[in-house]
Protein: ABC transporter ATP-binding protein
Amino acid sequence: MTALVETRALTRHFGGLKAVESVDFRLEKGEIRAIIGPNGAGKTTFVSLICGRIAPSSGAIVFEGRDITALPAHRRVRAGIAYTFQITSIFPRLTVFDNVALSVQRRLLSAGRPKPSALKAGVGEALERVGLTERAGTLAGNLAYGHQRLVEIAMGLALEPKLLILDEPTQGLSDGEVEGFIALVREIASDATVLLIEHNMQVVMDLARRITVMNFGQVLAEGSPDEIRANNAVQDAYLGTGSDG
Ligand SMILES: Nc1ncnc2c1ncn2[C@@H]1O[C@H](COP(=O)(O)OP(=O)(O)OP(=O)(O)O)[C@@H](O)[C@H]1O
Structure:
């Protein structure tokens, strides 16, 4: 079966630093996959390579069987790869509605059918999925931090992605918000594949069917939550440190 995403010997060096080193990775359609690992392990660099925010030093990225290594980021969005990163990228002086409308418009324009009714419907649907319908008219910058993260997820969903990449989505969320987030990702995974960088081990163990552990730019281990919990190398590198990130 063709994987949704595959990387082959994917490598990115920053000067002498091997941020990502020869990573062979495979993500099946419909998965919720978590990538974990200590700070500086290369997780953000790795997903940035997949979505095209940064270029690899060598190696290949294949999406739905097609080599996308040379494809610019905006073309990858059009191919179905959406992402949110650690640093929020919302426009604080626009309303929640308008932030999400920017994403919907991007999708509609790339499909060549920008109708105002489709724009409104697309925004409405994305806001409903993340539970922000009531906040549509609020300036995004006036929202609580947890809600700003949800706006970002709505912006990702509005692109109707095949793959949604979330980089530390629960960072800064309250316990109640984390619960809501877990339910949201389960719902998103009913029609998209989710690749998640996450430091909160409860979230990882609850959501991920498989976990990829990175360390020093390489894949240290991969397996089910039970396999990862029982893996000695992982415990030494990460879990055993008692670190929560
Ligand atoms: N643009 C850059 N220029 C130079 N070095 C970089 C750059 N981006 C990342 N690095 C380095 O590459 C290594 C991997 O960083 P990366 O952010 O991918 O790790 P990470 O696993 O996501 O860490 P964290 O959990 O702290 O977010 C680190 O040593 C980092 O300092």
Notes: The radius of gyration is 18 Å. The mean pLDDT is 91.
